[in-house]
Design brief:
This protein is α/β, with parallel strands linked by helices. The protein contains eleven helices and 13 strands. It folds into two domains: 97 residues, Enolase-like, domain 1 (2-Layer Sandwich), CATH 3.30.390.10; 218 residues, Alpha-Beta Barrel (TIM Barrel). The strands form three sheets. A seven-stranded parallel sheet has the order 5-6-7-8-9-10-11. Helix 1 crosses helix 2 and helix 8 crosses helix 10.
């Protein structure tokens, strides 16, 4: 028999996080702890991004309560019965994996979890006014990052072009890889014009230039854009392998972005990888504003995939009240220092 309990924590941003969907000051996470009859514990995080996560419902707290009350049923059925709650699926999957390993936070044992190897990540630049963004970029470069991801689509487009021009005048594409993420901010009618304007700055890729669900328009953009396109929000709520195959066959993107908390966990993300690689679509993994608990699980899973691209796993540093963990950043390398202790969200 397994017992379950949960606790909610609002994570507080060190600096307001600007996206094209608005500014974030806090975000909620629920932590679920499972304990088996031998006393082994696993902990998973149900992390929401307000306005994006489909779990972002008034009924979520009641659903988590119900899951914890009937956990011995849900551990066998959650992949099917909780499809409307992908972050909750991820929490249960993570907790089950941790409960079955040496300790609650060892999700996928590897050379990463024993501190031998690292994961190379990109730096994330939140939206802000041009001066603030330039300051953040300079800080990231001083820290040793050679790949930065910038959010675009929230401030004036000409200002964004000016910012990118300033960056490229200082740093060539050989010195600095630039990725941009529009979060669906461009209107379909002028998206290609904007992509053509952005192409001048030798960008690695652009994530989700237009809102998800516009299949024919996105397909056309992927065919005609001078910048490689990465699907992100487009993958949310696509559950069956058949539908995953259909989406990638229709749109034919250059990249997909895998955020397990938005997709239903690691088994679901593995399905996307299999379909993508069969279609010669490249991918990388990204955390979705999880605390260190969720980030740890995603990082451990990501390492096992041997993906050569820089991963989007740096968001654990953005909160003032994060959970202390062995995850450490040295330049652009994410390490797991197993000599460091975890704080449990339940203590």
């Amino acid at each position: 028999m397994i017992e379950a309990k949960y606790i909610k924590r609002d994570l507080i941003f060190k600096e307001a996080g600007g996206t094209s969907r608005g500014t974030l000051y806090t975000k909620p996470s629920w932590f679920i702890q499972l304990r088996n009859e031998h006393g082994k514990i696993g902990i998973g995080e149900c992390s929401l991004i307000p306005g994006l996560s489909i779990d972002d419902l008034p009924s979520l707290d009641d659903k988590i309560k119900d899951v914890c009350l009937h956990i011995n049923d849900y551990i066998h059925t959650y992949r099917e019965t909780l499809k409307a709650f992908p972050a909750l699926q991820t929490a249960i999957e993570t907790a089950l994996l941790g409960m079955g390993n040496a300790n609650a936070f060892e999700i996928y044992k590897s050379d990463f979890t024993v501190g031998i190897e690292s994961i190379v990540i990109n730096g994330l630049i939140w939206m802000g006014d041009a001066e603030t963004m330039l300051q953040r970029i300079d800080e990231k470069l001083k820290q040793g990052f050679t790949c930065l991801k910038l959010k675009v689509g929230a401030i004036d487009f000409d200002q964004e072009l000016s910012l990118l021009s300033h960056i490229r005048n200082k740093y060539s594409s050989e010195q600095l890889e630039l990725r941009v993420d529009a979060n669906g901010a461009f209107e379909p009618a002028d998206a290609l014009n904007k992509l053509n304007a952005l192409a001048e700055f030798q960008l690695h890729s652009i994530e989700q230039p237009i809102k998800a669900g516009q299949i024919n328009k996105m397909k056309e953009l992927c065919r005609t854009s001078p910048i490689p396109i990465a699907l992100d929000e487009e993958l949310i709520e696509i559950h069956s392998v058949e539908d995953k195959v259909k989406l990638l066959d229709e749109i034919r993107p250059q990249y997909i972005i895998l955020k397990p908390s938005l997709l239903g966990g690691f088994v679901a993300a593995d399905e996307w990888i299999e379909v993508a690689e069969r279609n010669k679509v490249k991918w990388w993994a990204t955390s979705a504003l999880e605390s260190n608990v969720g980030l740890n699980a995603i990082a451990q899973w990501t390492y096992t995939k041997n993906n050569p691209l820089r991963q989007g796993l740096g968001t654990g540093q953005v909160f003032t009240n994060n959970i202390s963990s062995p995850l450490i950043l040295k330049g652009e390398q994410l390490y797991y220092d197993s000599s460091q202790k975890w704080d449990s969200p339940f203590e």
